[in-house]
Amino acid sequence: MSSTTSQTEAVATQRGGFVKLSGIIIAVIGAIMFVGGASTWVLVQNQLSAENIVVAEDASFLAGDNVNGPFSAYAQAQIINEHALDASGGKTYAELDREDPVRAVVMNGSFLRASLFTSVLAFGVSAMAMGLGLVQVLGGVALHKLGRHEDL
């Protein structure tokens, strides 16, 4: 075996080892992202469920459903907005006079909507973290397998 062949094999082995290690690291980070996303989803879902909120019967969709996920939270936020606008004659909080007693009702509706939209956002970010984590796991496994073939 020539010196050049031996050096080429050594470089290939080093490169294969780096690719395998990179694959493992990427897959582990992806798994952590997936678990973090799933944990956040479950946490937000449990917190919403504990509030015992039910989508109002006059909501345009999911009426009567328990608020425990992104779609039911969105449906409830939408109907809260409709109720607040009905109570204020179509005016928003900023459009009402400071002394108008309805202003407090509209303000509470805005706070509730903001809280529900925050949970919708948390569900979305959780789903994105899980999706990206899964992609990283798959990419890491693929890299690891490629690194094994470099060693051959």
Automatic annotation (TrEMBL):
Lineage top rank: taxon: Bacteria
UniProt KW keywords: Membrane, Transmembrane, Transmembrane helix
Residues passing through the membrane, by range: 21-44, 116-143
Protein name (record): Aromatic ring-opening dioxygenase LigA
Source species taxonomy: Bacteria, Bacillati, Actinomycetota, Actinomycetes, Micrococcales
